[in-house]
Each structure stands twice: as C-alpha cells, then as structure tokens.
Amino acid sequence: MADSDTNNNFLKEFKIPNYILLPNEPKEHISAEDEPKCPVIVFINSKSGGQLGGDLLVFDLGEEGPDKILRRIYVNLAQLQREGDKFATHIQENLRLIVAGGDGTAGWLLGVVSDLKLSHPPAIATVPLGTGNNLPFAFGWGKKNPGTDENAVKSFLAQVMEAKEMKIDSWHIMMRMRAPKEGSCDPIAPLELPHSLHAFHRVSDTDELNKEGCHTFRGGFWNYFSMGMDAQVSYAFHSERKLHPEKFKNQLINQSTYAKIVGSQGWFFASLFHHSSRNIAQLAKVSIMKKQGSWVELTIPQSIRSIVCLNLPSFSGGLNPWGTPNSKKLRDRDLTAPYVDDGLIEVVGFRDAWHGLVLLAPNGHGTRLAQAHRIRFEFHKGAADHTFMRIDGEPWKQPLPVNDDTVVVEISHLGQVNMLATQDCKSRSFRDPSTPSSSHGDDEDDDGNGDDSVSGEEYRKFGAADTFKIPDGVDISHLS
Question: In what order do the strands lie in the sheet with 386-391?
C-alpha cells in the first residue's frame, strides 16, 4: 500500500486532468496543492511499446497527427483561460512534451511545435526508440530504448522533471529544378524525396517560393543535410534494406552491412576508384552567407567527396564531425564551438572513408569549411548526371542537369524550439555558459588537415503541420 501511495504521489506531479486535454470532459475543481509540478503529454507509436500506464495521457501518433492534437489542446486551454481557469494557465506555462520514437518521429513533433507559433511553446524530451537516435543522444537522453517497465518509466520521468530547457535552431531547405517537358513528374522519376522535403507535396502555386516552369520542394531539418560519399552509402544501405528486410534484424548486423557497403563501393580508396567528377567542387558551386552580409562563394578543396551541413554535434550515431576549434582557429578563421542555438550551421567536408574514421579518435574531426547562416548549392551540367543527398538519415538519388538548367538547394535559418536536456547533454548553448565545454576549445589540438584552409525575417512555417505528415503505412518509430 505504501509503495502504491508513493507511486501515485510521484505520478501526480506529471498528470494533467482530462478536462484540460479533452474538451468534452466535465470540468474538475483542482486545488493549488494538486497542481502538477511537471505536467507532460506523451506522444508515442503503439508499435513501439511504451507501457506508460493509465496514469498519464498518451497519444498514439499512429492514430492522429500531433498538429491536430496540440491545436485542439491549445484551443481548449485558451478557452478555459478566458473563463478564468487559473489551473489552465499553470498547465500552459509548465507543459512539457515527451516523444517516443526515432529521429523522424521526434523531428515531426518539433516541426509541429515550430509551426503552431505558441506564446508558451512546450519543451520537448525525446525517448530513443529509432535507429539513429541522434536527436536524443545530442540532448543527453541516450541512444537506446530506456525500457518501458514501471521503474524505467519513473526514472525517465524523473529526468524530465529535472531537465533544463535549451533552444535548438531549425533549418529550412528549398530545392528547385526545371520541370520536365514530357512524362510524369509526381515525383520526378527516379526521384524519391525524403518525407522531410515534402516528397508528396511540392509547394503550391501561391507559395512565394513557387517559380513558373520549375518544381520547387521545401521542408526542414534539425540535425544535418549531407551530399556525396556518405549519402551514397546510406542510399545503398536503405535500398538493400527495402529489398531484403529480413536481413536487417539487429543493430550489429546493420552496422556490419553498412561497413561492407562502404568497402564494396571503394570509398576507402576513393582517389583510385572514383572519378573526380564526383568531388563536391566539380558537382556544385557553393555559396554561404553569415548572419549579416551577402553571398560569398566558398572554396571547396578539390579532394572533398562528401559535405555535411550540421546543426547538432551528433552524426552517424553520435559522432561530432566539427569538433571544437581551438583559440587559433577562432582568431584566424572566426570558427567557434558548434552551438545549437547561435543561428549558424557547421559545414564540414570529408575526402574518403579513412577521413571519416578520424571521428573515432579523440579530438578527431572533418575538414572545417565554414559556419553559415545560409548556404546555397548550385548544380550545372557536368560530367556527373546524379549525386546523392541525405536529410536527417533519409537519403535519395538526386538527378543533376543534363542541359543548361540549374538545380538549386538552399538552406537557411528558420527559427527555434525548446528542447529538454539532461546533465549528460552533448549539445552546447551559446546563451548558457553552464553547458558542457562551452569555451572556444583552447585545449584542443590543431586540426592538422592539409586542405582545411579555405578562402531578417523568418522564411515561413516549418511545414510540419497538416502538409508534413508521415504517410499511411509507415512505421514512424523506425524513421531515423
């Protein structure tokens, strides 16, 4: 009985009365001492397990999208506050969200919160249930499923209560290409864009980004955009898994298969097996813009075969391609630590698979190319007719111009949302000096890379509400 009372008292700190969340429920009288210290709403996919019990209200994302759920809840909260319900105000000001799933699921919810433009946007904690789990790892929630038994759930909730809020930048991405004169173009064969780039919804005719005679796609990401070598390997892996899902039953087999693909495609000896037409400098003209300034062309070393635009210090399962530049890099090139809320995205290059392995070493990092508020890739007719791209773990094969047309990919800062971070958080905040290693990296060795030397307004909604939704039949808990 004592254990039961203790358990109930603990869960009371998180529980929200039904009338707050379900508009048709009868209103309850709540005393001040019954106000939950940390009211939470849990979003989970029923296929992921997550036996959180009846003491907390859990929404199944397989049944209803978070945009509809949150819009309904906040409309109800606003109505209750107009009626003088002070408890509703307490809930709105202290509400926290928990999302259980992979990076795709977490990014979906983050995008919805960003879109809703709430006066008191709730901070979000992520339960790692997917494949990559870069988002949870970056904020201290780990890489593996923490468990769904009672003790594991209570332990996670205790972390949520103690977690601190940290803002995270979001990034808008636009891709524009000439519409084909003949044949089907929905999507443009063989183009299968990722969900985060709205493969199933091009921009409308009234969208300011729409351009006559072109197909324009837009979307957003939280972690990274990459192009070239790493995206090609990821595309091969995902294609193989789609064809033979029975071969990908556990993490060890998946990692082994991934390594075999890297070797079979010759990326460890890229200078021998891959023509220079695949190198980034031959594929695209790259331009960047700082927070204040104009477009400046970025010089990409000729040997770079992969480029990563990184928002979080977590890539490919927790690796940090940017590292922490030392004081010399800060002085000579104005390169800072990879803060997740400074409105800058880190641009890193890799020569081959061996270069990628340096990330496993202490202080290892790729070739630091730039930090930018906006970055633009312009692809013109060249020796290659396609390349590979990836957004937050979702790769695709991108056709390149075969005539005088241009394919443009542009990334720009969009806004911010609030994340919940544990004491083991890997991310660093520009605003909060108490975050780990928030200095400018004076203790780190120089990078020693021979080719490391290189010469106002929010766009619009993130696109997650209504139009940005996971298609029917997709198991969102495994999006990575």
Answer: 367-372, 345-350, 306-310, 224-228, 386-391, 394-399
Which whole number is the average pLDDT over 105-110? 83
Question: 312 and 355 in one domain?
Answer: yes
3: left (phi over 0), alpha (psi -120 to 50) or beta: alpha
* Structure-block tokens of residue 63: 């049944």
**What does the chain come to in residues?**
480
Q: What is the CATH number of the domain that holds 272?
A: 2.60.200.40
User: Does residue 468 lie in a domain region?
Assistant: no
C-alpha–C-alpha distance, residues 25 and 17, integer Å: 9
* Type of residue found at 266: G
pLDDT of residue 477: 40
**375 membership: H or E segment, kind and range:** strand 374-379
Q: Please tell me whether residue 399 adopts helix, strand or coil conformation.
A: strand
Pick from 197, 211, 206, 125: which is nearest to 463 by CA?
197
φ, ψ (nearest 5 deg) of residue 266: 80, 20
**Is the domain of 102 the same as that of 190?**
no
Q: What is the pLDDT of residues 359-390, one digit of tens each?
A: 555 676 778 999 999 999 999 887 788 888 98
- In the DSSP assignment, the letter for residue 50 is -
Instruction: Encode pLDDT of 438-466 as tens digits.
Output: 443 434 444 444 444 333 333 455 555 54
Stated as kind and residue range, the H or E segment containing 273 is helix 270-273
- With cut-offs at 50, 70 and 90, classify the pLDDT of residue 251: low
Query: Hey, what amino acid is at 401?
Result: P
pLDDT of 255 reads 59
Its pTM stands at: 0.78
Provide φ and ψ at 131, rounded to 5°: -95, -55
CATH number, residue 110: 3.40.50.10330
- Residue 311: CB atoms within 10 A of its CB come to 26
CB 80 within 8 A of CB 91: no
End-to-end CA distance of the chain: 42
Task: Give pLDDT tens digits for 39-82.
Answer: 999 988 554 434 443 445 578 777 788 888 898 899 999 999 99
Helix ranges, 32-149 (H): 66-82, 86-94, 103-116, 134-138
Q: DSSP letter string over 80-94? A: HHHTT-HHHHHHHHH
Residue 106 and residue 301: Cα distance in Å, rounded?
Answer: 35
Does residue 232 contact residue 279 with C-beta atoms inside 8 Å? Answer: no
Q: Count structural domains, the chain.
A: 2
Q: Are residues 146 and 293 in the same domain?
A: no
- My answer on whether 117 and 23 are in the same domain is yes
Domain that includes residue 330, residue range: 170-419
